[in-house]
Write the structure tokens for this entry.
Amino acid sequence: MNSKKVYKLKRGPKIALVVVVLLVLIVPFFVDKYKEYLYKKTNEYAFLRQGYTEEQVSSIMDNLSDDEESKLLTYEYNEFIPEFVKTKYFMFKNLDGYLGQVITKEDDFFKYHGTDGYDYEGIVGLVNTHADRDYYTDTYKTDLSKEYGLLVNKFYELDSEYEPDDLVDISIKYYYGGAKKIRSEVYEAFKEMWAAANAEGIYLIIISAYRDYDSQVSVYKDYEDRKGKAYADRIAARPGFSEHQAGLSLDIYSKDNTNSQTFKNSKAYAWLSENAHKFGFILRYPEGKSKITGADFEPWHYRYLGTSLATKVYNERITYDEYYAYYMEDE
Ligand SMILES: [Zn+2]
């Protein structure tokens, strides 16, 4: 019969078949081994080995750059790290500061925030803005190259001789009390805002505008003489640390309400909250952010940033201190 011969292979092809079968069985085994070898060199594997769960590892890997992942691998396992890395304003350079807040300042932190669990966003904001330090310590010079975006707060200071060179007189139509000055672009923006508010029956007035270094010295000294340094620090900025010296801030009330206690309930405040950013102003010291801004809630204090920057800050719903720390400080 011919059919038997058909299945009978010669020795050469037989060996070839055996080799093919062996390769088919063995190659995947080595491919797997090689893949495993490669996987063990990944950061993902290293983080899992450190004790992070898969969920924590993806939080880390989704939010950090390769370089940051490598740096993080020099840290020991820490259950708080995956929580911090997923907050919006996480900055790797501040990681040690965030962890320091959790571990050593827990009680202080809860005192300020009154939350049940850790407020990761709050800690990130605090550390990014340097407000985890005592106010007025390790201060920086205000970076004037930021122009209308410059920062003045408890950690950023203007020189005593700093005075804007484009100050203009504010018309008596807009202010209450003594004559006042402000930078010209701020004045133009305010006048537009004033007209828009006025069209809706709101009569804005300026109570305070540009203040030079010397007048801030006397404001602060007056409080200090009467009630001591701690009180003065709560109520007024130390000379050089007042945004009013930048000529970019206005204290704004309305003609029918100039009361610092009740202005927050006024129609004018509600209007400013909705509209000020459209004219380049932001509420500089919002409610509940005192630890970061270093100032109590001041519904009357508006800071000029220009419409583009003011709108960005408004849309992010964070303080200018936080915005500056995240987007501008290292630029
Ligand atoms: Zn003010």
